[in-house]
Write a structure and sequence with these properties.
There is one protein chain. The chain is mainly alpha-helical. The protein has one domain. It contains four helices and no strands. Helix 1 packs antiparallel against helix 2, helix 2 runs antiparallel to helix 3 and helix 3 runs antiparallel to helix 4. The chain is extended and about 70 Å long. The two termini are 36 Å apart. The C terminus is likely disordered.
Length: 149
């Protein structure tokens, strides 16, 4: 094995190690935050809508990390779902505390952003089904051979 190949292999191992450590750290942080929030909800004795929506955000983040860990691909749809949930939470909870002069404009902007993100999900789903996604092409994965005819 050439020195260049050994260096390349060592670099690949270091990048993969960092990748897995970072994924575990992110996953652990999400679980820790979700458990902390859940303990606060239980201590309060009841859950508010903002708490439930926050738990949904943690759930979506955890699912995204899990899928990324298994497939080494980051599904864009999950990021959009998280953004929609966060905007919905902001719309339902935080907008009530905004002054009346700015209230209507803020409601319209957030609602428009949710509609735009929802439309992007429809477009991503449609194009993924109609034209396929890169991850659907098994022959493009390194180390995989094309499916038999």
């Amino acid at each position: 094995m050439e020195p260049r190949e050994r260096i390349q292999k060592a670099g690949d191992i270091m990048v993969d190690t960092f990748h897995y450590l970072a994924l575990f750290a992110i996953g652990a942080t999400i679980v820790w935050s979700a458990v902390y929030e859940y303990i606060n909800i239980m201590a309060e004795g009841h859950a508010k809508l903002k708490d439930i929506l926050l738990l949904f955000i943690y759930l979506e983040l955890g699912a995204m990390v899990g899928i990324y860990f298994k497939t080494h691909r980051l599904p864009v749809q999950y990021l959009v779902y998280i953004a929609i949930t966060a905007l919905s939470r902001h719309l339902v909870i935080d907008v009530q505390q905004v002054s009346d002069n700015f209230h209507l404009l803020l409601l319209m902007v957030i609602s428009s952003a949710i509609v735009l993100l929802s439309t992007s999900i429809l477009i991503l789903t449609y194009t993924g089904r109609k034209f396929g996604r890169p991850e659907d092409d098994v022959s493009s994965l390194p180390g995989d051979s094309p499916p038999p005819p």
